[in-house]
Every structure is written in C-alpha cells, then in structure tokens.
Amino acid sequence: MRSKKAQAQARALTIPVPHQASSGRRERLALSLNTLDALGARRQLHTEPVKDTQRFWGMMADQLPKTHNGKRSFQQHRGSRFTNKRAQKKARKRERDMKNGSAEEVLKFDVQELYDSLNEPNDAAVPNGDEATLAEAAAEESLPEQGSEIEVEVAELSSTGDGLALQKGSKRIYVVPFTVPGDVVKVKVYRHLEEEGYTVADFLSVVKPSPARDDSRIGCKYFATCSGCQFQMLDYAEQLRLKKRVVEKAFRNFSQLPPELIPAIQDTIGSPLQYNYRTKLTPHFDGPSGWKRNKTPFSKRPEIGFMPKGKRTTLDIEDCPIGTDVVRLGMKLERERMEVEYNKYTRGATILLRESTKRIPKDTPAPAEVEELDPASTVKVETDKHIDLKTCITDNKATSTEYIGDFVFHNPAGSFFQNNNSILPVFTNYIRDHVLLPPNSPAGSSPSAETATHTHTHTHTDTSTPIITPNLSTPIKYLIDAYSGSGLFTITLSSLFESSTGIDIAEGSIAFARRNATDNGLPPSQANFIAADARELFKSIQYDPDRTVVILDPPRKGCDADFLGQLLRFGPRRVVYVSCNVHTQARDVGMLVRGDASEDVGEEEKKFNGDGQGKQGQEKGENGDIQGSRYEIESLRGFDFFPQTSHVEGVAVLNRVEAIAT
Ligand SMILES: C[S@@+](CC[C@H](N)C(=O)[O-])C[C@H]1O[C@@H](n2cnc3c(N)ncnc32)[C@H](O)[C@@H]1O
After folding, report:
1. How many angstroms is it from 147 CA to the middle of ligand 1?
2. Which residues lie closer than 8 Å to 354 by C-beta, 6 or more apart?
3. 456: CA distance to ligand 1 center in Å?
4. pTM, whole model, 2 decimals?
5. Fewest CB within 10 A of the end CB: N or C in the chain?
C-alpha cells in the first residue's frame, strides 16, 4: 500500500519507477566528464536544416503515419521519438507545464530528464504499465536529514546553471549551485522538495574538482555566495559550449517540434569582454528591521549588494567585477554616499547604476569638460577618433547615452537597454547580416536590385490542395521591429529598408526611439514608431508581407499567443526572433513552425496535419485558401551577453514556408 504522502507525490510527477539499475546505468552513475559528454551527445540534435521547403513538407507528408480519419498526424510522427505511449504522455505533460520559462520550470524539467536518463526506459521493469513518481521512488529510500553535510557527485548541469548531483548509492537528485559536471563536492542539505522530488543543497566545498574546473579563474571573492554568477571557474570556451547546449535543450524540450525541423544549433558567439562588461547594475538594500511598523530610519549604513544564492537577504558587496569601470566606480560612490545618508532612509531601495557616455570627436576642439573632468566620478576612454567620457547615472528618470559603432542611443536610464555594450556591434552586425534573405535565395538581393513586380497571392486550386504562391523574386524592403524599446534594431538596420516600423508598449521608450531616429539622421518616413501593445500592430500595418521581415524581441515571458496568431495571419516573409529566454523562444518558434498559435499544447493532433494541408480548423478565406502561414527555421544560435552567468540570448531566423504542393 502506498502511503497518502506517496500517493500525493505520485500524482505530482509521473515518471517510471527506476527499479533496478543495470550495470550500464550504474556505470553512468560513476560519472566522468567523458560519460557526461556521451550523455550530452546522445541527446544532441544533429540535423541539418532542410533548405527546400516544398520538398521537405512533401517528404514529411510521405513519412507521417495516417490517423484513423486518413489524415496524417504530426503528433503520431512526433511519437516516434518516444518508446511508448506513456513516455509520449509524459513528454506532453512536461511541455504543457512550460508556461513562462521561469527558472523553476526549467529546473524541474532538467531534474526529470536526468532522472530519466539514469533510469533508461525499460518497460519490462515497470509492471503492467504502472507508473510511479520521482518523488515516490526517492521516498523509498531514507533521505539525509536537512542540515546534514554529505558528499555528492555532479552529473549534469541544469540550464539554470545549477549542478544536478547524486550521492553514491542513491537515486535522489541534489540541486547544487556553483558546481559543474564531474565535481565531487561537499554540500549541506537544505530542503527536500517533496512534490518536485529533488533536494536543494548548499555548496560547501570541492572534494575532487571536475577537469573543467579551475578555481584560479574565479575573479570575484563573492563567487559561490552571491547569486549573480555561476560559471567563473570555467574556461570561457567551455561556458560558450554549455550555452550552446542550453539552446539545444530548449528547442528539443520546449518547441514541440520533431528533431527534423530543428537545425543544428550553431556555436555561441562570445562577448569581447568577459568581465567589466555590464553597463547596468542594480544593487539593493533591505529596510531597517520592523520598517513597516516603525518607520524609523537606519542607525547605520545597511548592507548593500545582491542576493546570496538561495536566501532572501542582501549580501554586502563593495565591488562587482562584471560591471564596467564606471559602473564599479558608481557602486563605490553610492556606498560612500550611503555611509553619510543612511539615516534618511526608512525602507529598502534598489540603486540604479547605469553607464552613460559623452562622446567628443578628436577633430573638434576639446571642450572644457575634458580638461576639467573629475577622475573621481568620470572614466575617460580614448580611441583614434574620439574621447568617451563615461559617468554613472543613478537617477531612473535621467537620460543615459550609449554608442554602438557610430549609432547613438539615448534612453531613460531606468528603462530597458541591452546591458553589454561590448557585444552590441557584433550582435547588431549579425542581425544585419541575417535580416534579409540569404544572397543565394531567389530574392536575396538588396532592395535596390529589385526588378520584380509584387504578385503576392494565396491561390486556391482545390479545397484539399491549397497552394501559396508568393513572388519569390521579391526582395524584402520593410522592417517591423516588434518590442522595439528605444529603437535598437530599427535604427541600426534602417539603411537596409525603404521603411521600418517599431512598436513598444513603453511610451517612454518610444519617445526616445523617435528622438534616436532623428539623432541618427533617419527621417520619420523611414522609421516610424508606435507606442502600443504589440497586439495592436497589425491593425495599422500596410506593408506587403512578401516584402516584410519582422524582428521579435519580447520580454522573458515571450510573445502572447494572440500576437503570434496575428503574425501568422499576416505572414511576413521572414522572422528574426531575438530572446533573453530561449525556453519561451523555443515554445513560440514551435508555434510559428507549426503555423499554430493556440496555447493548448495537449491537443497537438488537432493542430497540424503533416500532409501539407495546413492544420485542421485553420482559418480559410472566401475561396478556401489558407489565411495563416507557417515557418521553417533557417538557423539557431546563442549570443553570450552575460559571461560568467548561465544566461544566453537566443537568435532564431525563420522563413515562411513558401509553397505547399502535394
Ligand atoms: C527585451 S526588451 C527589447 C527592447 C529592444 N528590442 C532592445 O533590444 O533594446 C523587450 C521590450 O518589450 C517591451 N514590451 C513588453 N511587453 C510588450 C507588449 N505587450 N507589447 C509591446 N512591447 C512590449 C518592453 O517595453 C521592452 O522594451
């Protein structure tokens, strides 16, 4: 009989009971880096993108099994990844669970995946298809007391940057920060999470380092206490490799696409600066104890810094080496100010530290401020062409200025702007190189080389065989910059387009986008900005979709399904999706590739017929022609905007599937 607790746990997670580990599996528990690489390799996606979409969809249609009603089912095809219905159901449940791509969701998924890989599907070992849970399986063994110190070996790295470790002879997974695969470490058991089925532990010390670890690389004395960085002990090339794997896993696990539709992930592009790169930091301090009741001010300077890992307190930090020189200087000055002004505060606050640059060309006479600059608050950076005077802004409402190559961007200091200036020229050049169709595609020439007349049609031949026939020789000449902020993409790319439109919900950012367009010499006819929710975009857009590329750069939670549905109906020729959360990006890209923005991922069968007929229930026009598009992925890769941390910025380039013929 299962206990009530075990039954509740069984309901919480559905994972086959691991039963007897084979000797092979036991070997895997003795984890070496080689073994881990092999595990990674086994899971990696090694498929080349299919260039000829017509051929691809035809091929898919041939390969897909037919359902009872004679239609070919995407889900059934997808099922070939899984050994049986139970595994399929389990995977579907996981995907459904991914809502906002939070660290908790990703960690939960990674724990389950490691658990599965250590207990390979062995149907014979699960009698009568009975299912039990990770929590239940772990409940069968006695777990160490909370607070006790144990030794564990790190088997895997979660995409959250946490090590996933095992104690010898146990199947329980311990989540241990600041560790890498192959490390044997001493940890303090913090909490057994019953429902999630894993244990959170505090890192104490390294017993035997992984070959990948070299602690002499650590550049901050607060590393392994502060929650900000995870990878300082790793070689930078290894950090980039790990981030590539994060992108791979995100698309494998959260896009709901079969491997054939996911191209091999390209290498992560590194940051020119690996320390001293953050142009914005936001240390904070908590209120005096009992501040809500007493409203009495501090009696001494509070601790100012960042959250320690796993605790809701503040770690007093006097310096953060990933900040730029002037941001670090700003941190020092703010702490000095607080030494004097602490008694003005009765509650906690976040301090803004934002770099701002005043650029002075060398071919003009140097203004007095260059001569008179105060080195106590200004950092001077000299290049061949100009002198940059850098200061640190602490007022959210002040204006910060930043240069990317020769482009200048002003921004409300407290609003969003990318935080690593050193990678921005590399990044914006990459987007510039990929925003238009590739040169070898029928329309991959520059807009000025255009000769073809636009003949975008959604032609219908018969009700069962819709054919979308765009004018393939039409070059792209319009840009939509959705979630534009203060105009980063519109402005750096505008010379490629006849007209660009940016949209952002933040009115302040749009006001600055307009100013930035003017300051960079763009007339309003070339760069237009709308302050509105992205869902309003397609109400006013007049661009021809065959000639339009859409850049998406939403916040971490990704795009909403309504907006994606509108995007599919508009059907731009190309989409470049930039994201600071590759998990929600994978979810959204999956929707674009399936041509379905409905959120109910438990109903995949209803959404897609792999026979090239479009999804069931897809909107049709008066003549029965399909009103929505779907996309194929041209390329996927990460950019390392945040070295030493586990974050990765994803860039996905997609093309509309041009013609579907059977
Ligand atoms: C990751 S930032 C990208 C900004 C810009 N592309 C850049 O790189 O500077 C996301 C932007 O989305 C905007 N945003 C958030 N929700 C939005 C919505 N529903 N509609 C339009 N914009 C939104 C935010 O104001 C923010 O500027």
Report:
1. 43
2. 279, 280, 327, 392, 393, 394, 400, 413, 414
3. 30
4. 0.79
5. N
